[in-house]
Fold this protein.
Amino acid sequence: MKLAVIATLVAGAAAFSPAAPKAASTTALSASFDKELGVQPPLGFFDPMGYLDGESQERFEHLRWVELKHGRVAMLAVVGYLTTAAGVRFPGAEDIPAGFDAIPAVPGMVWAQMVATWALMEAANRDQSETPGVAADWKSEFQGDFRNGALDFGWDKQSDDWKNKKRSIELNNGRAAQMGILGLMVHEQMGNVKTILPLMH
């Protein structure tokens, strides 16, 4: 189990890398990504495995979307892990333990409900510009922009600098959450997670 968790996390880590320093080029397949959103100190333009060497802007945008999506999932995972570690449970699930011990303890019908929920979320979390009922002139601003032209919570009224700052904050929180959930899972497998989570039940 420990090896499977580590292998999965290492394999997925490549999707979280923004990109590596490279010389500017005029060709589409050798774009420079050092000015992209999310490239910031102290690492700057970071692609130690060279996944973006000679790649196009489209490829970068895909990897950025994968990073954003994994970051959003990781933020939910950290909150969920800490919540259950503190002893919070849904009614009827009071006897289900926290962490990896919950996997065999969760009833089959709950697993079926979770899989159905994930499938619905995956189907809904996409560019809404082609969804029936969405204004024909509305387009998403970036991959991961799931607004629908009706609810934007004031986003359209903000400046580009403000929007980029908020998007950078989300990327950084997602990056931190990915490391956070990895650390929690590793410490749980090492058997010492209760030393870093004193409220764990």
